[in-house]
Amino acid sequence: MSRVPSIRTDDAPRRLRAVWLGPRGHTLSWAWEYRRWATFGAIWLGFSAVLGLILWQAEPLLGLIAGPMWAMPFAHLVTARLMPYVDYDRPIRYWRRVIPGEWKRSQQTPTGERQVRVNTREIVVVHDWSMEVLRTLYLRSTDRCAPLAQPRWGWRQ
Amino acid sequence: MNIGKGLKNRVFGRERVVELDLEAREIVGHLLVTRTSLWGWYGLAPQEWTFTSEDTRTRLWDQNVHRYAQLAGHAIRVRTSSRPFPAYDFARKLDQDTPNPLPDVPGVETFDTYLEAQQRRLHTSLLDDKIVTLGVRLGDAPPVKILRSMVRGEAPSTGAGAKLLEEIKQLNQHLAGTGFDARPLSPTQMAWLMHRSCSLGMPVPPHAGVAGGEWTGEDLYAFTDPVDWFYKPMGRTVRLVGLTPGEKPVERHVAVLTLGRMPTREFPQDGIDPWMLATDRLAVPVEWSASGYLVPPTALRSAVEFERNRAENIDKHYREHEETPPPAVTRGIKEAIATYDEVTEGDARTAVRFAGPIRAAVWGTTEDECLSHARTLMDRYGESYRIEVAHPPGQVELLREFIPGELWALSGYQRRMSVGYFAAGMPHVSSSVGTPTGPYLGYTTATARRAVLHDGHFPMERLNAPGVVPIVAEPGGGKSTLVGVLAYHSVTRGQPTIILDPSGPLARLCQMPSFAPHARHLNLTDAEPGTLAPWQLIPEPQPQEFRSEREYGRAKARAHAERKQLGFDTFRMMLPNTTLRNPATDKRLRDAIRYVGGSVSVNPHQVIKMLRAGDEYAREIADLLEESSEFPLGELIFPTDRSSEFTAEAATDKQLVVITMPGLVLPSPDTDRDHWSIEELFAQPLLHLAAFYTSRFIYRRSMGERKNIFLDESHFMGNWGSGRALFVRLGRDSRKWNTAVYTSSQHPEDVLSVGRVEALIGGALVGRLEDLDIAEKAMTGLLRAPKEYATAVTKLSPRPAPGSTFDVSRTGEFIYRDCYGRVDKIRVDRDWAPELATVLETTPGLPRLASKEAPPQLFIDEVADLFGLGRDGAAA
Hints:
The structure holds two protein chains of two kinds. By secondary structure, chain A is an all-alpha fold. Chain A contains six helices and two strands, in the order H-E-E-H-H-H-H-H. In chain B, the strands form two sheets. Chain B has a 16-stranded antiparallel sheet that branches. Chain B has an eleven-stranded mixed sheet with strand order 18-17-27-26-25-19-24-23-20-22-21, with helices on both faces. The chains are: A mainly alpha, B alpha+beta.
């Protein structure tokens, strides 16, 4: 074959994420992707609600204006910390699956109380680890079955 | 308090145990049924890759691409795993193949120690068989009744059953094609795979799967019950503990890595390893699991269009704002268009895509070891192959993907690539080389470490092929060691072995305690006088070897006649040309020898005495022979004691004979015999006797008996007439007479030019040859591999750089071509037998003290005492 075309993965177009540079005619000096805008917006709303409620007790107007205003830098800080963990290979839905999963799946049962299910066919085989732990050597004199002096299973250089 | 503490532990990561509920519901033969799907599991056969030409590789890759492309619409899972070398089976087969090992010497155990030493070596080294399995999702889970009837072998009663059977048959046939050569997994293999996947890194119970090929319902707990998975939330590893009642639990820490971005490649032209094969080179055990969906072009079209539109819109947005889009956008647009074109217009090979995550699992006995293995893999992949490897959280879910039948994640680290790129992983390429049975020779070192077994008689007995194996290497390349190892194996297995070694180091094999009573060392230049007396070179037939008295009598008579003829030929060679031209010489000699007889105890001096009793001319001949008997080389034929008779013991047959001739000067074939020096004159009868002895050693035994002959420095042999004739005859008869012929030399031409032996070569071992032209000749002539690999030959067993120490682990490297024509780089292992290693140490000279050289000083002021002056300038 004279020239074989190169092979590649489809990552290049899939990695691209749309950014919003600002309204038409005005270009913002930063380029945030839509998901970052959305995350920022959600966190800002959350923080402003909390801060606003706290400040509302003191002064309603303070809660309405100062709340969102002071929430913005905090939201920006949190977003800036979180977004590096979100990229093409680890989208938000990935984190939504993994983080709850790590804590949800747990089941703390002490070993002694585990339910040991007894199966009828292979019970001898399952518990017969001794053959591997104590390796046997094949030797011509058949009544000798010598175990290795160091029964070990492992990777050794 | 307890609630708070419990909550804290729950949130912040005391270790938890996983409830391993498998998706699999039933396993029937090679079919695995989950709640929703039916999977078929197949084992891919190993394919050749190393030392093959680019065309062969491209063709293999293309076949693989075709196989995957035809599976479009199915989900697949590729699982690679490794199994330790079956040392017990190996020893059992070796024992069965050795009917008559060398008799044990009292005090030194021979055959059992030999078997034991090899098994220990194989148990404790990192030599595994690689297992590559492919799971294909056939469709939705069938009703249980249909499966049952299939297992029982009944014809399907419903249309659905028949359709399923047809689909399975079609899939079997498709996967059995070239490129995959896949076979459905047997029950033992299926059980092995399930055990291995549930307990990654742990030994599998040896009798798994013998109870039959069906696991239903509760039987599947056999795979998950013996092991517990412990993890910490957001932890980096999973801890596996194998439970055994009454025994110490086996513990492993497993880390699962996942592949990220992968670079564009020209495969296989760029010469970089296939990406799944690369882990074989690491001294780290790795298992792969690539699960995904083979997306047919129709399903992909809208996705690819969306990607292209998105890329173009991003570009447009940037331009609206009068900004230059980053180069990634331009690249993205270009590739999106190319992908769209492939998907819509391309054939199956280019259009089908694999979409799914690709995971690699590493493990260790401690967490640190496991993490260091993970780092090794990540570093190596990033550095050599430019593939990003990530170590994400959520390890338990990732580890679950290794179990057949389990679901895989659909978000995060999803790779989408053409089947061409996926097939370029080539996991089932393996470096298995050597004969299926036989003693342990060494291990492969090119891509993976696999044990190499070599049985010199396998080609003759099984493949009907000749058994001449040339060994070519420079001095210091490890030839003598290799010959020593091969000879050790054959003698211990009781095969008659003869070694012709002109320079002599292999004679030490005769001194090994287990070989000494069965070995004979014939030194042509420095032995006891009378060692090569012609009458003693022919052993006396033993009555127990023959079936009848008549046969025994005939053999005895033949032996007598041979002795007389050999004596005659030898004495003729010791006489000058002028005497030989006289026809009376022959007559006198024959009369004398006939009178003396052909008994094994005849002393050659008796012939001289007989000649002296004859006429004047006979006395002249006697004088000439007497003179030559006083010459050092002639002494070998005539013993010092003129009158004694030899015992028959000196002539009994030995299993190992080593013939050496250090310092022997060969006559040049161009000069006339009249102009030969005395040394050259006497070299001739000695070499003739050596060749005679050798051919007798081989040809007097039965044709079927396994014999071995090692011709060291065959360039030496090629220079002398009877030697060359012997070599050609042995080569031609190697198959019929079941003789493994190993010839070693320093140049491939020595072998290829001796006679027409190219067709008789049944294997080859090529060591270091630093000259590129010679390496190319060896590569094309002996190894029959493409010439482009000749540089590999120049880099074998490298000499250490100045200042660095000798790397013992890289000595004895050879490129080995086995009887099936497979070629790979191996390292000959001699360290497993301690007595063998000491005997084969052929480095000359006294052991040198390791000189600790200080690095060169840059500034002369720093040198404390250059001229023996102290700091204050006074002389020391």
